[in-house]
Every structure is written in structure tokens, then in C-alpha cells.
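Teaching assistant's notes for section 4

Start the section by putting this record on the projector. Ask students to predict, before seeing the second block, whether Flagellar motor switch protein FliN will look compact or extended. Collect guesses on the board.
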Amino acid sequence: MTDPNKPDQNISDDDWAAAMSEQDETEQGNTPSEEAPLEEDDPWAAAMAEQQSVEEEQASQEAAQPEQPATPAKPASEDIFRPLSQDTGTGQPRDLEMIMDIPVKLTVELGRTKLTIKQLLELAQGSVIELEGLAGEPMDILINGYLVAQGEVVVVDDKYGIRITEIITPSERIHKLNR
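Reveal the predicted structure now:
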């Protein structure tokens, strides 16, 4: 049999027997033929002893100082943001008035297509461009370029309008972006 770390060296059964008897002596508390390293040579033992002495010193210093009442920590965010409460529906109305006057761009997309530069240059008055959208298919409603709903085209007093038929969920938005 060979040692996997030293494949060229053969280990005899006598060597195994000696190693096993040495292990048995160590487990039974007898010292083996070679002495164990002293505690001074063991860096772990020295580190553990040092740590214990530091902890004892800190404990004695804490015992010598009188206890002061701890001041509760207040998050800085409470100074900036008002905390949310459970009864938001019955309390003050939410401060949405701040954002009500922000303009957004609503776009209704009839369909899309891809053209080459050559096809684009060949366009003239009266040219027809075929779109991917089908007739009767709901139109995409985009807010600032993001798909948020779908609807159908309606005519109101000789003007086009759109009736919302479906609000898009976040997972559907991701699926629609891939087309």
C-alpha cells in the first residue's frame, strides 16, 4: 500500500500497526513517543488566552462605570419622511397633489413595422405601409414610452379617441416589450 501524497514510498503493515498503536495511546491519555508541542508554540492557544484576558478587562471596566440610561435611537428618515400608518384610508388624504400637475405624454400605437433605408427612400405620397398590428386588434397605450394599457379606437364628435379595455400588469409589460 502507498501513501497518496508519496506514491514512490511503500508503507508496510508494521508501519500501520505502529501508527494505530500511537493513536490508541493518544486517545487513552498516554503521551506518544513524540511529545506534543508546548502551549507556547501553539499560536491558537496564545490567541485564545489573549482574547480571554481582553474580555475580562472589558468586563471589569464596564462594572466600574455607573450605568447611564440609554437614549432610544431615532431614525433620521422620520425627520424627512412622514411614517406610514395603518389607517391611511381614514386619516389625511395622501399628498398626491404634488404630482398632479406633472405632464406626461400619452401615445396610442396603431402598429409597428421595420423598413430598410431603400424602402424608406422609395416612399411617396399615396404609399401604403403595412403594419404588424391586425385590424380589430387592441391598440397599445403608452405613457412616456412605457406600455400601460390597451384599448379600442372610438370616434367622438369627428375626433378619434381610445376606450381603455385592459390595464397591463408588470409581467405582461415585459412580455409585450419583446415583440
